[in-house]
Each structure stands twice: as structure tokens, then as C-alpha cells.
Amino acid sequence: MVSNVYFNESVILLNMEAASKEEVLEKMGDNLLSQNLVKESFIPALIAREEEYATGLPTAGVAVAIPHTDVEHVQRKAISVGVLKEAVEFGVMGDDKETIPVRIVFLLAMDEAHSQLTLLQQLMGVFQTEETLMSILKEENKTNIRSLLEEKLDFGVLEGEN
Amino acid sequence: MAKKQVLVACGAGIATSTVVNGAIEEMVKENNLNVDLVQIKIAEVGGYVDTADLLVTTAMTQKDYPFPVINARTFLTGIGTEETKKEILQELKK
């Protein structure tokens, strides 16, 4: 089974400016769309899903969000990282009222349900390590973020290399 | 002890429930429990109201179910995981 996940500098967005979570999702979704990693339906589906089931997580140090949606909107599985210049409020996962100021967004474009357990567990491991989150937040070089995450996450055989 | 059916649900049935499912699988093994784990989308819970013994979910749920519901967000943030595990074990050992 080919299980490689698309991840490189082209899906890492730094200093993102957005006024709302919808704008964050649109910007990150547009970037995936322009690389044909997702279908056009991905962005509206992503926004609708976030509205219904919020993905903000009150992680230590800095809050993250992990927006994602149904597999049929995805062309190629990918993880996109967005670092926001200023925090944007996301709903807290499992809570219908509370919001949380998010600075780092891990957009998950998954093409298969119930898969990628190891990768997802490793990703949650990153969320649970304040030091790693703070490094991502402060880093200004995309390649350094890529290396940092490649060290922590098993993306499978990496593509998108030159 | 009868086999318990545990539903693990998130919004899409893709990401967070996969992680929670993995964590519960480990717990089940460690504690030698007889559990039937079913990973679903939260919207599908209705189909299991007659058979399920417990719902563990990262998605919010407004509905009342005939079985206990445990919020599993702590498996993702790592903050308070042990308490959530205890809560789940208590239900499974009932």
C-alpha cells in the first residue's frame, strides 16, 4: 500500500494573515487546490465541517487546530501547516460554545478513512510537546519547519523532492 | 463478562477517532478486556443505540443516548489523558 503523504515547503504557509477561521481555511485550501492535491469541493466542505465539528485544541504553549473533512474531496493525501501572524479564534473540539485563539493550523487532507494511525499519533505527539510547537511558531524558514516535522513524523516515502 | 461495544466517533471518522481508537485498543490489550471497538462518524451513532455500551468521542454531541458519553479530546492534547483513561476503564469494567 502506498501511504506517502504529500508534505514539503509548498504546503507550509508562514506569517499568514486572516481575519477569521474561514479565511484561514480558504487560504490553506486554495493553496492545496492550486497544486491539485484537493478538489474544488474541499474548501466548502472543510468550512462546513469546521462549523459543525470544531477542531481547535487547547494544547500547551500555543493552541492548534486540525481542520479536515471527508475523504472524497481529496485527490492526494497531504498535511499542510499554516502559521498565523496573529491568532484567529477557532471553536474548541467537542465543545459547542468555547473558542480558542489558534496560531498553528495543521490542515489534514486525508484520502482514506481510518488510516494513517501512526502518522496521526505522531502528530498528536507534536501537539503534546510545547517545545516543538514553539519552535514552529518562531521559525521563519520553511525548510527548517519541514526538517523539524520530518524528524517527528513518518510521512512514508517523501515525494515532491527536487 | 459480556463483550462491550464501544463506539469511537469524531466528525469525519478519519483523523481524531483513529487516534482515540488506537489509544483505546492499547488500553484494551493492557487490561485484557473483551471489547468490540467500532470507529464511526458521530452522525452514525444513531444506528448503534440498541447495541452500544459506551461512546467515546472528540465531537460534541447534544443528543441524549442510553449509554455514557466520554469526551476524548485529552487524547489529542495530552492534557488530562490519564483521567480520561480511568473514566473509560471504569465503564469497561462495569
TrEMBL record, chain B:
Keyword set includes Flavoprotein: no
Source organism per UniProt: Halobacillus salinus
Family matches, as PROSITE patterns: PTS_EIIB_TYPE_2 (PS51099)
Transmembrane segments: none
A Pfam family that the UniProt record links to this protein: PTS_IIB
Sorted UniProt keywords: Transferase
Annotated protein name in UniProt: PTS galactitol transporter subunit IIB
InterPro entries linked: PTS_EIIB-like_sf (IPR036095), PTS_EIIB_2 (IPR013011), PTS_EIIB_2/3 (IPR003501)
Keyword Transferase: yes
Cross-referenced SUPFAM superfamilies: PTS system IIB component-like
GO biological process: phosphoenolpyruvate-dependent sugar phosphotransferase system
Domain named PTS EIIB type-2: residues: 4-94
Gene Ontology MF terms: protein-N(PI)-phosphohistidine-sugar phosphotransferase activity
